[in-house]
Design a protein that fits this description.
This protein is of the alpha+beta class. The protein has three domains: 118 residues, 2-Layer Sandwich (Beta-Lactamase); 73 residues, Helix Hairpins, CATH 1.10.287; 149 residues, Heat Shock Protein 90 (2-Layer Sandwich), CATH 3.30.565.10. A six-stranded antiparallel β-sheet has the order 2-1-6-5-4-3. A five-stranded mixed β-sheet has the order 8-10-11-13-12, with helices on one face. β1 and β2 form a beta hairpin. α6 runs antiparallel to α7. The protein is elongated, with a radius of gyration of 28 Å. It starts with a helix and ends in an 8-residue tail after the last strand. The model has no long low-confidence stretch (mean pLDDT 88).
Amino acid sequence: MTDLDKAAYDVLPDGVLVADASGTVVVLNPAAERLLSTPADTAIGRDFREVLPLVDEQGRDWWACTDPYEGLATRTRQPERRLQVSGGPAEHRDLLVTAAYVRDGSRLTHLVIALRDTRTRERIERSRADLVSTVAHELRSPLTSVKGFTATLLAKWDRFNDEQKKLMLTTVNADADRVTRLLSELLDVSRIDAGRLEMRKQVVDLEKVVNKCVAGRVASGEPADRFVVSVAGELPEMWLDPDKIEQVVGNLVENALRHGDGTVTVQVRPADGGAEVTVGDEGEGIPEETASRVFTRFWRGGNRRGGTGLGLYIVKGLVEAHGGTIEVGRSPSGGAQFRFLLPAGKPPFEV
């Protein structure tokens, strides 16, 4: 095996152990070193069964069961199995193990074993379970309301006056909007996770975007004097996706209103060849120990004032899709302050 082959294994995120035709370990990449708590220098040259002793759920020696070197000559791989290390520094550790058999005719020339930590898989499964639970919880309330009011109107239409009918239909409409927003958030999360966000960039006036978001909140009933908008300096020409930037600013303003108190201050200024936008409030702020979790899925803070907990995760994904960065800290008044930087960018045909 060449140095180039070994270097290719070194950059893989999964652990890899390679044994030669005699079962002697010739490669143990850095990820496998971490999983097995075994340095490559002490593993190379030893029998693969000594370096990676595995047992199945019944406690049986996995290598005795599969017999890679003396087993079926037509076998080319072992599907992923959850196994346990039965000895060495990593004893009792659970791993997801996949094996591939490299053959020259019927002769096995290399055994390639891929290792993954089960904790990563468990985190993914928990995340999916949390997503299903959150969606079910958030959908139940508006759908129950829609079903209740529509069933009542259909059964007892003549018993209600026009004002009562209008009130119930207004509630149904608001709950339908809530379901639509939830589904839009789920689609955004899916696209962010899959790296499939479509960017339709054009010249965007950030000041107008901010003012539009604030005007929308005022129109929905927030006092106008609760907002302060300031623009300092001349901004460069900003090529951005207007809908996604409006979504970013809107989510941050909504977050300040929902989780903060007092005046919401939005500032826009040129910075680092692009633009910087900050959104701050006068609430209690975000404790330093939880700041690192703010942009993760389902974060709602300590007060849990509604929402799915996906808004800031989506905000981070949209900002980063523009090549920008976002961070959270304390505003001058002591509340939470979100600050994101956006590069000026170029027209799509010049990128």
